[in-house]
Amino acid sequence: MDYKTALIPTHGGYRKLRSFQSAQLAYDLTVVFCDRFIDKHSRTHDQMVQAARSGVQNIAEGSMASATSKKTELKLTGVARASLEELLLDYEDFLRQRDLRLWGKNSPEALEARKFLSDKSDGSDRSDKKGASVLLDTSPEEAANIMICLVNQASYLLRKQLQTLEQKFLEEGGFTERLYNRRRAHRDKS
């Protein structure tokens, strides 16, 4: 039985998604960033770490729910993206409140950071802990801008993932349709 005819198809596989790998790296590096630059006892520290964590966890949960609910998968993938947007605003606030420069999207620094970060989140089922070193020897301005680049990358990948999920749902339907078709086919055989 293949994916399209299976009642409960193979699901999960989120660890191989570039969106998951980028979000996981953003989570790991957010912990490093917050420990370096944000008071550990502040609400902001907790909020940033939790927003980053939510991005990762919702991708995983949506992927696992996908077998029986494409609606849930779409919703949780959207929640992951919204969590990363919250995190992005926190990094932008960090720069603005300290009167630090926000790199332009196509600035040489941003282009270099995106290339480096893309290499760090590519092809692994776990975040590269060595990637954390990129934030250990940087200024607050550089670290926040690097994180903005990473969060934007993860958000972009999630947007593309949502578009793919939507198209796949339109073409193949979801669990309820498979259930109905299987039940109808069973009745027709009887």
In short:
The chain has 190 residues and is mostly helical. It has seven helices and no strands. The chain has one domain.
Task: Describe this protein's structure.
- The two termini are 21 Å apart.
- 33% of the residues are buried.
- This protein has one domain.
- The chain has helices at 18-37, 43-65, 70-97, 108-120, 133-136, 140-172, 175-189.
- It is an all-alpha fold.
- α1 (18-37) packs antiparallel against α2 (43-65), α1 packs antiparallel against α6 (140-172) and α2 (43-65) runs antiparallel to α3 (70-97).
- The longest helix is centred in the last third of the chain and has 33 residues, at 140-172.
- The protein is 72% helix and 0% strand.
Notable traits:
190 residues; mainly alpha; 7 helices; 72% helix
Low-confidence parts lasting 5 or more residues at pLDDT below 50? 124-128
Helical proportion, percent range = over 70%
The H/E string reads HHHHHHH
Whole-number total of structural domains: 1
Biggest β-sheet description: none
Strand content: under 5%
- Rg, Cα atoms, Å: 20 Å
**How many beta-strand segments?**
0
- Helix and strand content put the structural class at mainly alpha
Separation of the first and last Cα atoms? 21 Å
Total helical elements? 7
CA-based shape: elongated
What's the overall average pLDDT, rounded?
85
Q: Secondary structure elements and their pairing?
A:
Elements (H helix, E strand, L loop, with lengths): L17 H20 L5 H23 L4 H28 L10 H13 L12 H4 L3 H33 L2 H15 L1
Helix pairs in contact: 1-2, 1-6, 2-3, 3-6, 4-6
